[in-house]
């Protein structure tokens, strides 16, 4: 990328972290240099190698001041990176979303007062996206930050302070048990129905899908569906000497209905071992020390490496409706 001041360049922002000499998150400011969508996508494509390196080093990249103001433009921005699509319809996400284009959909539709706690997107399912794009179309009047936490840094802290549990998480993985309602529940951050989640219309189709994915299940009297995953990773190797605490443990403990009162009903190690509440609490405390709150400005776009960085959503209020949109990308083949 050119050093010219007429090009977007990296800037510092308040409360930014620095890990191994690299900023978290990395922030590119447009400096009012790129004024059209064509110019933006050309710049993204010309600088893709640089952007990929910065993303790998930082785990999250914020693009600020780029004139992206509608879903179609955001679709084209995310498409410029050339990543394979990962659509909401084909995902096993348990959050209710609304599609705006084939690629772009709303962020979790949970009510404003509901906080969505730190997690790796869809890490509680066998198939999860590699990259996440977030676009702030309209920032909340109060609150509504997207919280970001580097999971490689968190795992290093777990290794240092809880080595026995670090080994257990890495060796045994996790099993998640969740309840899929019969109809979408917009009041819940995990309210997507089993028909929508599994892309089926009846029980037989649901059971066929679950069997193929290695789940166990139990139908409930109200026609909701309780499912338990196969053993899924709690820790992943990033391939560069780092490992990341890749799961939904914090979000499940802090935000899923009933989990704080009885964590073992929803989350256990892969060998069936229960996780003490004290371990959950310590993990939450550790993550809080490593969390950056991205306070959105209208037009912001964030690109997140889902294997490296967890995200969440702070509660928000005010007359202005928060509108944050999402596009997901699969791992490149």
Descriptive overview:
This protein has 333 residues and is α+β, with helices and mostly antiparallel strands. It has a domain at 152-287: 4-Layer Sandwich (Double-stranded beta-helix), CATH 3.60.130.10. 26% of the residues lie in helices and 26% in strands. The chain has nine helices and 21 strands. The protein has helices spanning 37-46, 48-58, 71-79, 151-161, 163-172, 194-198, 203-213, 249-255, 277-288, and strands at residues 9-11, 17-19, 22-24, 26-29, 60-64, 104-106, 116-119, 131-138, 142-143, 146-150, 174-180, 216-219, 225-228, 236-237, 243-244, 267-269, 291-294, 301-305, 309-313, 316-317, 323-329. The strands form six sheets. It has a seven-stranded mixed sheet. Strand 2 and strand 3 form a beta hairpin. The longest helix has 12 residues, at 277-288. The two termini are 27 Å apart.
Under CATH at level 1, the class of the domain at 152-287 stands as Alpha Beta
Low-confidence stretches: none
What structural class do helix, strand and pairing data support?
Answer: alpha+beta
Helix content: 25-40%
**Percent range for β-strand residues:** 25-35%
How many helices in DSSP terms?
A: 9
| CATH architectural type of the domain at 152-287 | 4-Layer Sandwich
User: Can you list the strand order of the major beta sheet?
Assistant: 1-4-5-18-8-21-6
Provide the succession of SSEs.
EEEEHHEHEEEEEHHEHHEEEEHEHEEEEE
Q: Which oligomerization state do the chains in this entry correspond to?
A: single chain
Distance between the termini: 27 Å
CATH topology label of the domain at 152-287: Double-stranded beta-helix
- Average of the residue pLDDT scores: 93
Computed CA radius of gyration, to the nearest angstrom: 20 Å
The description of the largest β-sheet is: 7 strands, mixed
**Name of the CATH homologous superfamily of the domain at 152-287:** Clavaminate synthase-like
What does the overall shape look like? globular
């Amino acid at each position: 990328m050119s050093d010219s001041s007429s090009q977007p360049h990296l800037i510092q922002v308040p409360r930014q972290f620095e890990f191994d000499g690299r900023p978290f998150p990395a922030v590119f400011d447009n400096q009012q240099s790129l004024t059209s969508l064509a110019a933006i996508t050309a710049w993204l494509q010309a600088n893709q190698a640089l952007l990929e390196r910065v993303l790998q080093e930082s785990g999250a990249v914020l693009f600020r001041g780029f004139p992206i103001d509608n879903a179609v433009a955001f679709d084209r921005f995310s498409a410029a990176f050339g990543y394979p699509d990962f659509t909401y319809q084909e995902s096993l996400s348990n959050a209710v979303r609304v599609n705006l284009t084939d690629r772009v959909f709303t962020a979790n539709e949970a009510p404003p007062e509901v906080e969505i706690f730190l997690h790796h997107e869809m890490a509680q399912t066998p198939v999860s996206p590699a990259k996440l794009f977030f676009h702030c179309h309209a920032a909340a009047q109060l609150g509504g930050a997207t919280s970001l936490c580097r999971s490689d840094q968190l795992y290093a802290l777990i290794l240092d302070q809880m080595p026995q549990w670090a080994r257990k998480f890495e060796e045994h993985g996790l099993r998640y048990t969740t309840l899929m309602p019969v109809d979408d529940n917009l009041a819940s951050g995990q309210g997507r129905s089993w028909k929508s989640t599994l892309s089926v219309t009846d029980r037989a189709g649901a059971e066929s899908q679950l069997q193929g994915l290695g789940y166990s299940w139990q139908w409930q009297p109200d026609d909701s569906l309780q499912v338990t995953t196969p053993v899924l990773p709690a820790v992943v190797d990033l391939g560069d000497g780092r490992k990341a605490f890749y799961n939904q443990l914090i979000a499940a403990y802090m935000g899923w209905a009933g989990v704080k009162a009885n964590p073992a009903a929803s989350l256990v190690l892969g060998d069936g071992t229960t996780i003490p509440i004290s371990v959950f609490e310590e993990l939450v405390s550790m993550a809080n020390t490593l969390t950056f709150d991205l306070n959105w400005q209208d037009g912001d776009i964030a690109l997140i490496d889902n294997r490296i960085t967890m995200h969440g959503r702070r509660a928000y209020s005010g007359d202005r409706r928060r509108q944050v949109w999402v596009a997901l990308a699969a791992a490149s083949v």
